[in-house]
Amino acid sequence: MEVTSPEQESAGPLTRGCQWLKALPKEFCAKVMGIAKMAKKLGQDDPRRIIHSLKVGLALTLVSLFYYFKPLYDGFEDSALWAVLTVVVVFEFSVGATLGKGLNRMLATFVAGALGIGAHCLATLSGRTAEPILIAIFVFLIAAIVTFMRFFPRLKARYDYGLLIFILTFSLVSVSGYRDDQVLKMAHQRLSTIIVGSCISVIVCICICPVWIGEDLHNFVAANMEKLGNFLEAFGDEYFKVSEEPQSNVNKSFLQGYRSVLTSKSGEETMANLARWEPGHGPFGFRHPWKMYLKLGNLTRECAYKVEALNSYLNSKIQTPAEIRGKIQGPCEKASRESSKALKELASAFRKMVRTRSAILHIASSKTAAEELKNLLKQSVWGEADVLEIIPAASVASLLLEIIECIEKIAEAVYELAKVASFRNRDATVLPERPDLLHQGAVQQVSDIDMLHHVITIAE
């Protein structure tokens, strides 16, 4: 809110106008500097954005040649502008999104153009009077049916853009045919230019610094597991420190990283749908099980909701007595720490696409600590303490047990995905085939030198 001095209030309109003009260059420079800083930050956060902008400019320059050079222009005429429009609409940040839009646009244009020509021919055979009526009926039926199809979840997820282009192309071809007898030529030119624009977009997107949305999804899921592990790593120490120093002003932003996991569902679903359009590349082969990433993401979010409940006890007004707190501190910290190690081990192996069950050891240790914590609360820590003072500690123990169960499910999902996606084996490690070994705490290893099996059994 601007504050004006008495001199400014008493000044006339001309004086205030002069003052505004004098301040205008400074305000303009400040805004320009603000925009420049924002642009610099966007580029630094993800340099791929700068490369993508250059790729779009290159694709548009290449497709514009069909309009600039007469030999190319003679083949397409004014329809060459559709190729330029196609590049603008189809070219997306990732390969999956560009391929999805390009294939949707080409297929929808081909099918809708063929149907439009067929509708035009049928309407022409009915006579000049009935022709506009039949065309109107065809347009109404096709538009209504295809629009309703866009409400189907699977069609909307993968083919919504194609269905939209289908309606547009069919309407243009069938309606334009009423005034233009060269409807076949028009449909052919439109299809050709769209194919040219889509192919140039796809080629530039794949051949020059490609951005694979599947790789982003892979790293995104691994990062979510790491965020939960970071919280659990610090929870034990922070919980007891907060109990002793409730007025501490230490920055606890590192404990809030898990919150982004709670709202990650829509992003994961979008990336999974786009990743399914991408061809095999690098460690991600053809028909990579992208749907299993959604299952793993759901389990991670389930764990994140329990972590959210656990986080509420960091600042609880009702604190457990110091005597009881001292008895449960060891098992509580151990359960939290081992759970963190299990999640981080799973995230690391998953990110590197390695098949290993080393996280089983940490899960077994965390279960042992959690059971010890539960037994302490059942047997020896009640004493003369008030029930309300015991509830926070009992709730923390219960939540830790539930989180460990969630981590077990996450581990099983990771191992299943690793098997289906053919992750490489870690040196000197072979995965056991029986999933029940995860609960028995058994690790099976084999030496790469002599191929002798060594079985290690860990008693719970």
UniProtKB/TrEMBL annotation:
The entry's keywords: Ion channel, Ion transport, Membrane, Transmembrane, Transmembrane helix, Transport
Pfam families in the cross-refs: ALMT
Residues that span the membrane, as ranges: 50-69, 81-100, 107-127, 133-152, 159-179, 191-213
GO terms, biological process: malate transport; monoatomic ion transmembrane transport
Cited InterPro entries: ALMT
Subcellular location(s) per record: Membrane
Main location: membrane
A GO cellular component annotation in the UniProt record: membrane
Membrane topology: Multi-pass membrane protein
UniProt record similarity statement: Belongs to the aromatic acid exporter (TC 2.A.85) family.
Name the UniProt record assigns to this protein: Aluminum-activated malate transporter 2
Organism: Theobroma cacao (Cacao)
